[in-house]
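Problem 12. The chain below contains 141 residues. Write out its predicted structure in token notation.
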Amino acid sequence: MNATNGANASGTNATNITDPEAVLERIRFTDAGLVPAIIQQWDTREVLMMGWMDAEAFRRTMSEGRVTFWSRSRKEYWRKGDTSGHVQYVKGVALDCDGDTLLVTVDQIGAACHTGTRTCFDADVLEPALGASPEIEAADL
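Solution.
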């Protein structure tokens, strides 16, 4: 396994793993063999979309520099931008602490959503009840 320990680029003490096969051992795929991949613009941190990856889509994403997904409806691999020109260039990939979700940071060229909008999360503005953080006294810091 290719890995380095110590502080990584994000300043955490996570292990940097360069071997996709080592990461695949940690990914907790669904019973259908899929893992959700949240796609985020690398510089603005805007959440663009969510897609599904299986092990092969993950391998392709890690090795090709472009995001590959598994289409549940078409039962085939698809690479964002191959038909639309709205390409996602990989800037980073992270596995969450439970091993069941990927965060892929990208440089998005054009729209990320199949509807032609920048993000899949701009159709409706939901208005939940807002929580408030407890006030912290300066002396408690």
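Discussion. Helices lie at 20-24, 55-64. Students who got a different answer should revisit the alignment rule from Section 12.3.
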